[in-house]
Amino acid sequence: MFTINRQSDYGLRLMVELAKNKDKKPVSLRKFAEKYGISFLFLQRLAGKLRQAKLIRSMRGSGGGYILTKKPAQIKLGDIFRALEGKVAVMRCLKGGKSCPAISACSTKKILFRLNCDINKALNKIKLSDFK
Description:
The chain is mainly alpha-helical.
């Protein structure tokens, strides 16, 4: 079964919350963590990855928190998942790195590669602004 892991789930929730932030004030990670019952430390690590990918930025001081670096219509779901997980792939062999010892005899490679391409295309069509 293909599932979105906890890291991507929480990271996407954070990004959607930032996108829906109408008053454009920074969103506090601590308040977000409390609201959704997410570990604050885990959320800090996710925010760090999203910040490193230049999808969000932090504002320090009283009333500080996080804001998006781009408009929600400019951020794609694929951008978020790649920032949090690296390359998105349905199988380890499609993610790169170590090659599969059965690659030359693999009867599923062609279909799974096509599925992987379709999933990545779909992730790159969905914008953060689509989450209303």
